[in-house]
Specification:
Carbamate kinase; kinase; transferase; 8-stranded mixed sheet; EC 2.7.2.11; alpha/beta; 267 residues; binds adenosine-5'-diphosphate; single chain; globular; nucleotide-binding
């Protein structure tokens, strides 16, 4: 059995996070082709009996497009207004596309405060369980229209890691605009090499990470590595892969050497 088979076998509950850089064009408008591709893959996994949870960024990007703004607004209320418009656009798009495959989605908007007390955590867990037990695909995002910095996860990489732990997922996949984690930032170092397997999130791994590559990306690799720390500590493996590659999720589950695998700690 190779490493991939050992850590990616028998996935029954899967969290997939898609970043803004994958869901939106550089213009900020939604990239329907790529969204459709993600939806089709998830719908098919659902039909294979795998419970899937989608963590989707893109609300502010979708709002910018709808409001015909050329760049992110500067003030917090304006950003949040863009998110309020965009979250609706995003959900409408997902609902429509998943419905084409006969599937129902449920929106879960979460803030860090929702996970701050045992009672609230149990409440959120129960909602996820009820959605999944009823064959509904939860679509998760931070509640960008209401949160302020002090109570923010701040990025969906961390949020998706927390969700994966909360629902005891078998695997977290972060889909980005890049093939995986490189040994240094590929946008500044042309000789950077893709790392296929990370056995331990140590200082060397942390130091390889740079910031976001695109105008719409947020956390870059630093937040993805933080997500890996959270999940692997809880015994959940994580993969970073390129959301643009055809059938990338299925390929990961077929043990192809796709992206970067962060190996879970023994649990
Ligand atoms: P997303 O919207 O998918 O979360 P981000 O733009 O936040 O994407 O993060 C992905 C970007 O991180 C890449 O496009 C790349 O420019 C940048 N990056 C920085 N350091 C690294 C690294 N060591 N390996 C890969 N990508 C890196």
């Amino acid at each position: 059995m190779n490493t991939r088979e050992q850590y990616l076998g028998n996935v029954k509950k899967l969290v997939v996070k898609v970043g803004s850089s994958t869901l939106t064009h550089p213009s900020g408008l939604l990239n329907f082709y790529k969204i459709e591709h993600i939806v089709r893959q998830l719908a098919d996994l659902h039909n294979q009996g795998i419970k899937v949870i989608l963590v989707s960024s893109g609300a502010i990007g979708a709002g910018l497009g709808k409001l015909r703004l050329k760049e992110r607004p500067k003030t917090i209320p304006e950003k949040q207004a863009a998110a309020a418009v965009g979250q609706g656009v995003l959900m409408h798009t997902y609902e429509k596309l998943f419905a084409e495959y006969g599937q129902i989605v449920g929106q879960m908007l979460i803030t860090r405060e929702d996970l701050s007390s045992k009672k609230r955590v149990v409440n959120v867990q129960n909602t996820f369980s009820a959605l999944l037990d009823n064959g509904i695909i939860p679509i998760v995002n931070e509640n960008d229209a209401t949160v302020v910095d002090e109570i923010k996860f701040g990025d969906n990489d961390t949020l998706s890691a927390r969700v994966a732990c909360l629902i005891e997922a078998d695997l977290l996949i972060l889909l980005s605009d890049i093939d995986g984690l490189y040994d240094s930032n590929p946008s500044t170092n042309k000789n950077a090499m893709l790392i296929h397997t990370v056995e331990e999130v140590n200082e060397k791994v942390i130091n390889s990470a740079g910031g976001a590559g695109s105008k719409l990306g947020t956390g870059g690799m630093a937040t993805k590595i933080k997500a890996a720390t959270i999940t692997t500590e809880q015994g959940i493996s994580m993969v970073i892969a390129n959301g643009e590659k055809q059938e990338v999720i299925q390929n990961i589950l077929n043990f192809d050497n796709e992206g970067t695998l962060f190996i879970r700690k023994n649990k």
